[in-house]
Amino acid sequence: MALERSESEETVHIFTRLGEYLIDSILHGESFDAIKRIVQEGAPLWYQNESEGMSALHAAAYVQNPELVQFLIDEGAIWNSVDNLRCTAADVALSFNNETIYTIIRNAGIRAELLLALLSSRSETEGPSSLVIRSEDVTAAASTDAFLKSRLKFVKDENGQEICVVKAGDEEIGVMMGWEQDIMRETVERLCGDHPSSENLKVLNIGFGLGMIDSLFQALPTRPVTHYIVEPHPDVLQHMKELGWYQKPGVRIIECKWQDSIQKLLEVGGFDVVYTDTFSEDYNALRGFFEHLPDLVAGPESRFSFFNGLGATNALFYDVYTHVAELHLADVGIDVSWKDVRISDDKNLDRWGKTREYFSLPSYRLPIGRMSKFV
User: Fold this and answer.
1) Residue-number span of the structural domain to which 21 is assigned
2) Nearest 5°: CA angle at 187, between 320 and 372?
3) For 30-87, how does the pLDDT look when each residue is reduced to its tens digit (9 = 90+)?
């Protein structure tokens, strides 16, 4: 046993020494051939130094060498590893305004995510996305079953902002928060503002939350003729009853997860507007919903959107996820256009309060999907 431990410690020591040597060589401007030789001799590309959490890919981004960045990516460098400051190598590239290096790393992320999605689709068990690893998180933040069993609170925070929060471990997380109102308003405008069926809309929304987007649908100059809302959480359903949603003309509330009601929704079909914003579901679930869209919408004039928030605490992750979603929507015949919505940067407003931050970027990328004309 002591011999095995000694051999293991020696292996760790060798990898550490090679990893440090590779990073130092890159930072000191060694030639491409010299770096290539070090990698071929077994220097681990996954290694990150203890002092800064820097990897070889971070180092290559710091010295702004696109050829070296591409080589490391091709050799298996981890595109989304973060240093001790939670920065990726792509963040380093952005700090230098180096679009070439940023794009190399971003494209590597897109390829990796598409491959993981493909492998997951061929497996009976879903593999976690490398964007947001949730496989070990069984709290209400990442487990639908845990979320549906959790108690929600509908309150106003210290700034007077309406929030719906859930307890996840030792912290509270916003299921939906008042600062999203501008995003929802712009979303409804893009979905419905010039819709050719605006006088006779048939709307489907997955996930009620605080009811922001559903209230905006109801506030249109002409209310939707039919307005389906799919919501599984008992506390949200009770909140909806207290607010009178069950009595609103044309509103039909389905009390279950969308996965459990999808057959019924497909039978109804013919929706002019479809929106989804679910809590605690990952990208695999969202992609699963994408696949039903061609059979849910009325036709080429129909429009679709979703809350585009996965990976939204890091510019690289958000960019990769946005591109992956666009490609997967294209696979089912949906063309997407994007609108950047500026998030309020009022320094006097702490929109997060005591809850976990889930969107820290300056702009929200709003997707609007339509059936491709070539489908």
Assistant:
1) 2-121
2) 65
3) 999 999 999 999 999 999 999 999 999 999 999 999 999 999 999 999 999 999 999 9
